[in-house]
## 1
Amino acid sequence: MTRISVKVDGTAYEDEVEPRLLLVHYLRDRLGLTGTPVGCDTTNCGACMVDLDGKSVKSCSVLAVQADGGEVTTIQGLASADGEWHPLQRAFHEQHALQCGFCTPGMIMAARDLLRENPDPTPEEVREGLEGNLCRCTGYMNIVRAVLAAAAEERRHQAPEPGAVAEHAEPSTAGSGAPV
Amino acid sequence: MIPASFEYARPRTVEEAVGQLALAGEEAKVLAGGQSLLPILRMRLAFPELLVDVGRIPGLRGVRTDGDTLVIGALTSHHDVVHDPLVRRHAGLLAAATATVADPAVRHRGTIGGSLAHADPAGDVPAAVLALDAELVVQGPDGRRSVPAREFFTDYLQTALRPDELLVEVRVPKADAWGFHYEKFQLSAQAWAVVGVAALVRRDDGRIVESRVGLSNMGPTPVRATACEEALAGADAAPDAVASAADSAAEGTRPASDLSASAEYREHLARVLTRRAVLAAADLT
């Protein structure tokens, strides 16, 4: 067993884990955060995507021990404290970007990462940004629409704060992409 | 699925990692980003007794220049390789090939060193590194040695790395004067290459002075299309001459037949994709 400490959706946890425990199972089975589903279990589908230290990762392909000392954000950490949805959650709802909903947590986490690097993507860039996420209801059209709508809304509402630095933005976009 | 049990070590230095690898011998596997290793463990295709997690060893991440050489730390993520200004300036082929690896989340975790040490011939990074004539620096109990990329890949998923050695950096001769292109044929957006072609071309006005062509998934290791390279040396920088040279791209290769493609189809793809890659690298499109 290995001792890990990790912050998930703002709460700090300390746990003894088997080294082979995957991050997604740690989140679901140990912490009860079942908003992150297990999809394909082969690093393909992206349903289990979470944010680890500012970057999207497939949590079925990260060991819990690799997240030791890190900070994880799941789909359950996106809404504000008063329960108001994240702009991406709202846009997915409004644009009918989900049918069965299984891929949605991963789609939103991937889209959030994409918009952090590129706050004003083209439809093509959205598709490329979501290439690691599969939707088997074939809802891609509406998913792309939702991401573009959320991007537009965030650009409207988030004027760049002076001195704000995006978590891992490119130099060309530094200062214009405040963390989502 | 859940991986079989293993012991876990998290060394703080390369020396400590090498010591742990030496002690465990063939029973240990190195864990970096884990984007190749963890799927293998989950599918129970491997049963290492020990994972040596080198992911936090300082000094193995990042890109710098050393004279005419670009030095890339083995732990540099694909994402960082793709976006690094030094890589883009001096080894654009590597950035282009790496940008096609899997998907953004995998590129966040996966590392250049892991991709090379895993040595999947269908990978995109090995063919690019081979075309760039890179040197791979490995460290073992007796210190460091440098292995040319041409000698590094020895068989399917096999490399010149000994069980007690760690790949620590990739040294790429700056290729500023070369045009480049990576052409990949895949069956779905995030899939491995059915065939990939990493091309570098150096032109002198109307002539191709020199070319280097690395092939992904045309055999148990990434390979150079040497017959094509020879045919291109001194050839007219013209579509007909490139097409004629590209006809020899599959010579000497040993592609597999599998669910994605037959060997014959892969040979066909190698010729077609090489023509496209060289035309693009020679700025003839």
Note: The domain at 7-53 of chain B is CATH 3.30.43.10 (Uridine Diphospho-n-acetylenolpyruvylglucosamine Reductase; domain 2).
## 2
Amino acid sequence: MPRWGMVIDLDRCIGCGACVVACQAENNVPINTEDVYHQRRAIAWIRLERYWEGEFPNVKARYIPVPCMQCTNAPCEPVCPVYATYHTTEGINMQVYNRCIGTRYCSINCHWHVRFFNFWEPKWPDSLKNQLNPDVTVRSRGVMEKCNFCVHRIVKAEQKAKVEGRALRTDEVTTACAQACPTNAIVFGDLDDPNSAVSQLLAQAEREHRVYRLLEDLGTEPNVYYLKKVDVEATATAAEAH
Amino acid sequence: MRYIRLILFVLVVLVVMAIPLALVLARTYFLSPTAQPVKAQPIQFPHQVHVQAIGLDCTYCHRNATTSAQATLPALELCMQCHKIIPSQGRPELEKLVAAFQQNQPILWNKVHQLPDHTHFVHSVHLSFGFQCSTCHGDVGAMGKPGVKQVRDLRMGDCITCHQQNGARTDCSVCHY
């Protein structure tokens, strides 16, 4: 049984936003208008956070892509009164749209703000209606939705492996965001498989002391790992200051 | 006459309670897919002729059943492979088919087997584990003129029971995503 996880190397991230677009297209996420952002009701299963670092002449942009952390002890799960959000045996925090009654307790309890509520029926411009992914449900008004590590791809690959009578191969599945990333900053795979790309990347980064997780001290054991930026200039300035 | 108000009260309560009960019963009856009447189709396609009389395999027309999620309906070109040499004069259903083919218009069949919302069913996996089409669809080959009728419930209880009996996974994410 695999344990799915993701590694995001912030040293490689250039903040292009390809992951956001890929996710939007893959998972039938509605297009957010400006109004929706002002209402703070925008839906983006993975978002790109931008931070400015430093004073004006030496200012630097820092980017963090934030998908759902797929916490092992997910705070969103126990608050659901109808068990619409639950943990699969493969470590994915799933949302069952049929069960969801839209209490929004889960989004309130999520510290990463990666759960989104459909306040209205989703709308697409006519030109995009034929690009909806048939493998993914179009969520209707009144249900929560969230990143599920492209579970339809995982299910498809597992079914293919089953038909061919074999186990899932290492790194056979990848998510839309990881696939679209031009610099391979996002890597997806099985954390329990020592040969997978994520495990090897983690093991290497562990030696360099670069691994961290967002809001790790909450103890929810997220399955999305970040590798921190290697800033040569900042290290040099810090060395000079000492 | 002493108890007339009590009797009236009890009667009113019974009537009030009967209304939701009747509604619930009616709802379950009308929602049961197997209880639905046969759906009208643009062409009254007789499976009986194609399967029993001619002996076609299901996958001759529903070509993608073994390889993909959807069994798919055949394109009109496939129908016309045989029907271009079968006379259609005087047979209204066949005339409709030929007319649609000549006008390059698809036939808008009505979907018979409706799954619940937000559910994904994959034909290829079920067939590769040796299940017959008739396990879920019944003996379609014997269904004649009016059209195909759904014979199995195909709601979640039905799916789960079969999955449990056959040792298949019952995780929500197997079907709901």
Note: Chain A has a mean pLDDT of 91.
